[in-house]
Protein 1
Amino acid sequence: MTGPEVATEPIRLLDADGSLVESDANAEWRELAGQLSTDDRLAMHGEMLRTRRFDIEAGHLQRQGKLGLWVPSIGQEGAQVGAAWASRDQDTIFPSYREHLIALHRGVDMLQIIDIFRGAVHGGWDPLETRGMRIYSLVIATHALHSTGYAMGIRFDGACGTGDASRDEAVMAFYGDGAASQGDASEGLVFAASYDAPIVFFVQNNKWAISVPSTRQSRTPLHERARGFGLDAAWVDGNDPLASFAVTRRMLDAARQGRPGYVEADTYRMGAHTTSDDPTRYRPSDEEESWRRRDPIARLAAHLRELGVDDATLAEQDREAVELAADMRRRMLVAGTAASDDIFDHVYSEPHPLVLEQKRALAEFEAGFGGDA
Amino acid sequence: MQEFRLPDPGEGLTEAEIVTWRVQPGDAVHVNDVLLEVETAKSLVELPSPFDGTVEALLVEEGQTVEVGTPIIRVSGGDADAVETTIDTQQTVDRDEEGGAVLVGYGVRGGAETRRRKPHTVRDVPPPVASARPAPPASVPAASATPVIAKPPIRKLAKDLGVDLAAVVGTGLAGEVTRDDVVQSAKQASVFRNLQAPEWSGGREERIPVKGVRKVIAQGMVDSAFTAPHVSVFTDVDATRTMEFVQRLKASADFADVKVSPLLIMAKAILWAIRRSPQVNSTFTGDELVVHHYVNLGIAAATPRGLLVPNVKDAQQMSLLELARSLQQLTTTAREGRTQPADMQHGTFTITNIGVFGMDTGTPILNPGETGIIALGTIRQKPWVVDGEVRPRWVTTVGGSFDHRAIDGDVISRFVADVASILEEPALLLD
């Protein structure tokens, strides 16, 4: 996968109808995907449904004035679920702001995500409580550097490279085709390659950086660009959860042994960039239609039916997903907001005189309103 | 009983137009059922119900533009906690037309640029006068085959002047569009407006209510025209030296940060001429003629709100630079629609600059309560006789109207001749 040949097709195990694709080219990936039992695959399907129901509910809440903004991930669940299942417990994950499935998979509560977008918290959760899932990075591509630095730290600590995949740590950084044009993204690749950092950059190429098509931003496929930086790189069908899992698992385990990697997942953002965006102004509806037929959830569902899972089981998963989303809405409607001085508690790990002074000043200022602040 | 207030469906939007109601009073609605479609400066979006219950009343009509926070629908009974959803990968956007090349950026572009949907949104809605939003350009030029070559400051200049770079013929190297090209194009554009005639509107007539600024203007014009007997005079003048003076001022460091135009010289000329003929700067009350020993110099300005005449208070005390700054501030404020009533009161004399519209001259109507008004026509090169020879000179027409109750032809003529003589030789200001 690191050879000079230029791929014409992304790696694929399930076609758009959910049928298994069997070829010599994907034999090694089929074998890797074999690590996933039917129950695993059903669970992956459940996570995708939960994420989509959650996503739709959040979109509605935004239109009802409950959220300032929402960033839909609809259409990208297949790439994410494969990557989520490919990660191991000891791994650390640096997301952008669209990795809802990854966050939920690692144990972030739906409401924690919602709280960011309704402005109830300043952002964030404790990664020790979310299995290494770091906070959403709202500034484009900055975390390409943070994640690379973190991975270099793992290496300096000697917490990787022992040959034991169940213990060696690795890092995943998630960003998109738009972020790939940022300088930070390229710097991350340079340092990751130079320091053999245990990291995989998982790039969801959803084709549109708001209104700019990815073809405009990169004259060469993104995975080819990564090879130019000296990383192992792969191109995978992002709407194929099995392929996404197999490729990412292989890349991550190589990263643990000091070979940083890059996965370009070929996917599509079915909705708007955010609720502030109107994609009908810049992209053709037939393009959306052609991707709608490649929906990752429908694809895995078809595969599960071939494996003998009955429709009732799938329908039950959907009912659960709907109920979880409704539960999120109910909890959100009664949830409060963080205290206004909460921000001071997370600047330094230890008390800091200047910050304490600011916290005191804010308290005095607010007291000046007689409790109405 | 619960009311749904118009949320901000984008980031920082302040208003939206109600396009289509999908429910009617009496309908049962569930949480997340689509209630209506609204159009914002950014997009057309569906708003889902936050409540379960029965629609009690629609509080806003289709076609109305309302501010964020306005109650738009009342729903009675039901349970605000219930949830029902349907799988829908399209989620929020649903439009059936105009998949055009309008880009979506980060910022809100303001109500003025809200994209309008075509006819079916306009039903029994009153004519959209109140919102006073300019129609979109008749045609948006498609991306030209050859890209425009222009440096960023020139692109900025073109944007500021409203010049479409694609329509400018570049005279620089390899067809680069230069600063002069843009400025020239802007000048032409200010003369040749409405080159593209829009289609006739539907309907045989359009009824536009007379209100607001229009009503005030109408009343003022009637008061003035049928109270003060107007007498108008005109004189052509060679303003070449004024043009040279303007160029020198533009090049001088003192005037680097301020707009200098022939209007500035005209203002100064009027202030000078008023000292020689103070009666033109007066108010005729019927019993007496109140001659002002100060000049609150009004400038008639075409603004988004209509014709306004804010004035520069005590302009007679100002140096040329101070006057230039005051005029600039006054016109900027007017164009931004921020002119305060106090800025328009107690004027004593007015200039109307119809030259910016390409007109040679016209018969101005007095600002009510004033005795004189001067019109500055366009300044362009014309044949002019100098020392018995015909030469191209920068020529303009000074026109003015005066209240004949207050003053007579001799004063009027001297005053206008004085103004013209300054335009002909600005050095006279150094008296």
Protein 2
Amino acid sequence: MTGAYVASIDQGTASSRCMLFDQRGRLVSMAQKEHRQLFPRPGWVEQDGEEILGNVLEVVGDALDKVGLKLADLVALGIANQRETTLVWDRHSGRPIYNAISWQDTRTDKIVNLLAGEGGKDRFRAKTGLPLTTYFSGPKIQWILDHVEGARAGAERGDVLFGTMDTWLIWKLTGRHVTDVTNASRTMLMDLRSLEWDDELLDAMRVPRAMLPEIHASSEPYGEASDPLRGLPVAAALGDQQAALFGQTCFAAGEGKCTYGTGSFLLLNTGPRLVESTHGLLTTVGCRIAGEPATYALEGSIAVTGALVQWLRDKLGLISSAAEIETLARTVDDSGGVYVVPAFSGLFAPHWRSDARGVIAGLTGYTTKGHLARAVLEATAWQTREVLEAMNSDSGAVLQVLKADGGMTADNLMMQLLADFIGVPVVRPIVAETVSLGAAYAAGLAVGFWPDVESLRANWHRAAEWLPKLDPEDRERRFRKWKKAVARTLEWVDADDE
Amino acid sequence: MPRPIQSIQRAAQVMHLLSGRARRLSLAELSAQMGLPKGTVFGILRTLQQVGFVEKDPDSAKYQLGAALLHLGSTYLDGNELRSRALNWADSLAARSTESVRIGTLHDGRVLVVHHVFRPDDSYQVLQVGSLLPLHATGMGKALLAANPYALAELAGEELTRFTPCTITDAKQLSAALKEVKKRGWAADVGELVEGEASVAAPITDRSERTVGAIAISGPVERLCDAEIPRSDLVAYVRESARAISRDLGAIPW
């Protein structure tokens, strides 16, 4: 091992990125390329698997070129990926038999309802930690096998293979058909306790076992890549949010993080303990390092956070860039009693009400666009508080500090509101790109670049901290108003709505 | 080369004056500062008003830059925008230098801190985003002044506050220091704002090569300097991060 850097791929929903990190976990280089989103019909969202593979190879090359490094300077490659997005390909030709079906795609709603009809949305929750919704891979595989000619027969023979994006990339790079426990935990096909594919689930979703990858640890040398990355060990795969949890060095039970992007994801490490949620959160695998038991996590996702800022920019045109919302929101001292609840497609954790739709409550003649901007930022903070409270109840522990990361952490006002509304300090780590860092850490650990997780903790540093400043009485009074605004979103959708 | 068009030069001068400290100027003030008759200046203002580059404040009857200018893009960079674009590189600079990092923009004759990354040693530190620093006594301030002759001209008439025995308080001396900053592409203050503290800064430019901000590391003189001179490795880190941010600003059309 002569190299001094770890490469990390973040194969995301909109783009693929490569980042190079040195031994102290410092970002050395980065390259990024967006891929197309295909919308063949309303509700359908697809991506081109070959395009994504091409982009991934390109950004690795670009990241090296930018700083004049060579392949030999790298010790390992780790992959973090958009979760649940489903690809099925032909083992012999190496080509996808259908576009990748994005996690956002809702074409499986009928399949999902049919499955739920026999035992409710939580029918598989005890085994998988997940409710029946359109996000997860199992039903997407079923759809492809039922709609592409010859696919099902091929899958039964093992000629047609399934993979999430980690599996597709590893298969193309190393020739091995494997996935990691975190990605497998989002298929709805794996038993969370045994960490194996489960026959009952496979039968229910009608997915042949022969097409599935082997489930491996998240941090483990899967194999060496062939050209154009010849010899590079591929040594980690994690779902992007689990990678962020790892990148934030939340290795112990009780440590949690929230990643703020288009949507936001709060994950809490529960250690070897599998916590079943009674508040609508997901139970998922946090990570498994080779040779060690898996750690579990509770996950609460907020569907609309950064997306609400984008809405203000693209649909209302009140700002010309996302960062400008802070400028606009700072023209006023508070939201002027305005609350925005972005239940664009219903309320998610912890409410789970599909009959809800968004509201702007508390409008008066005094309201300005500044108030609206401020209410938009506040919405993210209030939604975080709701998920956090659910998580505290489920886990029986109270998070003492929130580690935040993601693009929205650049918004200082939003971060201050967050600390104010949740009442505990919010810290941002020095590497905001925790998804990439987590995959790099897991890969570096697997090849001995870092000796243990404690050496990674030493790399974590606070880059900024926001302390709660709001008077608790004022905070609770405003939270009461937020809850009233949430109540006003309910029962909006009628049975005869188009 | 054809001769420059005088009316465009004058219009540009009006806009530069309005982008200065005062922000709002009356017709009389503008004509006095430009040394031109009121009628001439009024004609220029009226045209600029028609295209939205200048607005007249109805209360004070003074002129200010118009909203249309803000949307021309490269002529204006929101501090929050700058922070969001610079986030990764500022973090990276803090990690490499193991010192705290600030990004500042020119604001009302001072440096407005728009971004702050803690020194990565997990000691107790407080975010200083929003604070204002003097132009003549900080690395960031000097980097911004060196690139902006109008800001310097505004300082010329004022007394330069002395913070330490090392603060440059003589306008001529400052002007000479800024020439040096411009030549070498980075700026420093060694004990000029706070005794024993130093900062090293480099300008951030947008795609039109205009300086929109500065990035700096700061810390004790013993760590940042060798014999009162900023360490060359740290200077290189600061300049590399300023270049990386500038590259990212230029790479994205907006």
